[in-house]
Amino acid sequence: MRNDSSRTVTAIEEPCVAPISQDTHEKSEHPGSTGSISVIIPVFGNGLHIARCLESLQFGNGRNLQILLVDDGSPQPVADQLDLPGVRCYRLEKNHGPSHAINHGLEQTADYWIVVLNSDVQVRPGSLTRLIEALEERPEYDFAVAKLLQDKEPFAVDSIGDGLLLGGGGYRIGHGEEDKGGGNVPRPILSAAGTASAYRRTVLEEVGGFDEDFFGFMEDLDLSLRARLRGYRGLYVPSAVVYHQGSATFEARGKKEIFRLITRNQIWVVAKNYPATVLLRALPRIIVFQVLWMGLMLSRGLLKACLRGFWEAFRGMPRMLRKRRHIQRSRSITPQEFWQMIEHSEQEIAAWQQRLEPAERSLLLRIYFGLFRSSTTNQQTASPVLD
């Protein structure tokens, strides 16, 4: 039964939510330090997971959290399954994916600090406050990500910031490592995983929110790249710790659906965000990565899903190219700076792979780095991202 102290709103379809402004403007100062924090949680089913998530938010945060639960068209309304005292719950009539749900949540709040959480996480007490405080103490940074640990003992790392190859493959840096060493050092990051990330509202408004065409997977990397192209910077905050089950929302859809989306979306990330000279310079790496990716999908019995992803990427390319024109016109960094930024991220991915036991390393990445060997693959993840 739903507790009557919660607020449930049913969104009207067509349109479900007005688009966030795409107008460009200078970074604005905002007195956000004393304001409340809006926590947006998109959810599709998984009542048990969201109950655990909400319970973990009840303790030790020390700041006023406004929790917005956006039910993305679950077959059975989530609000009917749970007691949700103090939670604003919005139900969308159709399932449009996490990107749409997060954008809808953003439209429902005016708070300066925005936290995005997956529904299959548990937050260590005080962690969301630490995320925001880290950004308050470092005004040169505009978004942040928590340390993500796998939600099973012995709590190996899930991600200490997301990275991207010049060839276009996105990876969770640190995944599978023990929770020690470089993972405990704050550092600049290329991308914040939407699993547990915090943003200044101005960032989300200026870049236009999450791309709803992505539906799910890599939409957070795409948003981070659009922010980086405009000069915004991201920060990894290891004192903020979140336990992540992983793919709980998409698990019921099956691996074919997951890898179809990843295949399609990683192509769109490159098509939208790589400046033209970077795209040409990185083209051999992009082609090699896509061939290796297809081989990986073939080995996993997912070739059909992969080919469908390629076809959908091609079919949606006109939309992506229209978005690309706006993104590239509004960027404030040079192509060379973009190249160096992604090159550094690639080096972080290589360093993470070297720290893993040989049996745990990715064959795809071994081949990729064998062909495109970096002179700094021994670099530690704590090294700074180029400005």
Commentary on this structure:
The protein is α/β, with parallel strands linked by helices and 387 residues long. The chain folds into 2 domains: 7-23 and 33-251, Spore Coat Polysaccharide Biosynthesis Protein SpsA, Chain A, CATH 3.90.550.10; 255-371, no CATH class. 39% of the residues lie in helices and 18% in strands. It has helices at residues 47-56, 98-107, 127-137, 201-207, 219-229, 248-251, 255-273, 276-299, 303-315, 317-329, 335-355, 363-371, and strands at 7-10, 37-43, 65-72, 88-92, 113-117, 121-123, 143-150, 157-159, 162-164, 170-172, 187-189, 196-200, 234-244. The strands form 2 sheets. Strands 1, 2, 3, 4, 5, 6, 7, 8, 11, 12 and 13 form an 11-stranded mixed β-sheet that branches. A two-stranded antiparallel ribbon has the order 9-10.
Layout of helices and strands:
Elements: E1 7-10, E2 37-43, H1 47-56, E3 65-72, E4 88-92, H2 98-107, E5 113-117, E6 121-123, H3 127-137, E7 143-150, E8 157-159, E9 162-164, E10 170-172, E11 187-189, E12 196-200, H4 201-207, H5 219-229, E13 234-244, H6 248-251, H7 255-273, H8 276-299, H9 303-315, H10 317-329, H11 335-355, H12 363-371
Parallel strand pairs: 1-4, 2-3, 2-5, 3-4, 7-13
Antiparallel strand pairs: 5-12, 6-13, 7-8, 7-12, 9-10, 11-13
Could you say how many structural domains there are in total? 2
Kindly state the percentage of residues in helix: 25-40%
Q: How many helices in DSSP terms?
A: 12
- Could you give the distance between the termini? 51 Å
The coarse overall form would be globular
- Give the C-level CATH assignment of the largest domain: Alpha Beta
Name the average pLDDT.
86
DSSP summary, beta strand count: 13
So, the CATH homologous superfamily of the largest domain?
A: Spore Coat Polysaccharide Biosynthesis Protein SpsA, Chain A
Strand content: 15-25%
Regions with little confidence, pLDDT below 50 for 5+ residues: 1-34, 375-387
| Major sheet attributes | 11 strands, mixed
- The helix/strand series, from N terminus to C terminus, equals EEHEEHEEHEEEEEEHHEHHHHHHH
Structural class: alpha/beta
The CATH topology of the largest domain is given as Spore Coat Polysaccharide Biosynthesis Protein SpsA, Chain A
- Examine the secondary-structure arrangement and name the CATH architecture of the largest domain: Alpha-Beta Complex
Radius of gyration from the CA trace? 20 Å
